[in-house]
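Student: Please help interpret what follows.
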Amino acid sequence: MKTLVKNIKSLLQVETTPRLKVCGSDMAQLPHIDNAFMIIENDTIAAFGPMSELAEQTFDAEIDASGRMVLPSFCDSHTHLVYAGSREIEYIDKIRGLSYDDIAKRGGGILNSAKRVQEASEQQLYDDAMARLEQIIRYGTGAVEIKSGYGMTPEAELKMLRVIRRLKENSPLTIKSTLLGAHGIPMEYRGCQEKFVDLVIERMIPQAADEGLADYIDVFCDAGFFSVEDTERMLEAGARYGMRPKIHANEMACSGGIQCAVKYNALSCDHLEYTGEEEIQCLLNSETMPTVLPGAAFFLNMQHAPVRRMMEAGLPVAMASDYNPGSSPSGNMQLILSFACVNYRMLPEEAINATTINSGYAMGVSDKLGSIAVGKRANFYITTPIPTYEYLPYAYGENKVARTFLNGKVV
């Protein structure tokens, strides 16, 4: 199948020499071609360029994108979108002044979601998650990482991972799975959490590995959750089974999580509200992608990660949705693009890089996705008629995606 997309108002994020990530001041660059074409062969980008250079040839299908722009699909490198039920009552509790700890002490927070996941059937979890995937596709997402973490028992964590495997098999999205056995501490392990860490190491990790259920391993390394020592034990166990780390770090405090991520060559470390010069210097020259989750910081009214300082130091930055029922109940990456500009003072070019190629790197797929390059997978979207690409983050209340293409096919 050979498809031509023609008369593209602007083809954005084009690369002749593909990169795995974009760092520092380069994030302010967004290569593009005006009045462009793109040729898709089966599921792959075969060619692109200005319309004046389009050679005469035959196509199986032609799409006229006059007045519209084409961008690579978003890569959402951090979500928890397999869950059961919403938590809007806790949201109201927060408005009334209850703290995260107050809600957790009475069985709310992660413990609330864990109870619901433990009680839910695998089919219910699958159906609910598939509906969420269909929704994020409509907003332009083409790749998504999904974590477990709301099981908190070996049986429930494996149930979640099996659901993610089914989603991989049946969704056109590119999906990566992450074992987040250490997302919170069950009530029965409070005061002896080292025993829960033992459970993760001795049962969750080996069983997930035996069934081939997890691409990555994650730990919530932060104040009030798991210590650096706990985290190192679990990452070392995951490494024995070939699971590369992706770490929750420094959301609540300067926890040592960033240094731990770099030490164990984590693919990404995520949240990063509490990031100082020591952490920035640690990240420099590492292979770990700093990943900011603007939706959670917005929803919880938290301080913002020092994104501008990170880029000034030469770091790359990725941004993801953190789609989950408790602290970021949205997987709309167009909204994340707007948050990046409004709350973190990123230029639109920087924000687009953060939500495409860099977030692709943070989930291990930027060699195939995240930019328009020959040989990469044809995951892209065609916008509605918009005046400029700066309009994408500017018009934060509307869906600017007219059509999403995954693996070369319109979805």
The chain has two domains: 2-72+369-410, 74-361.
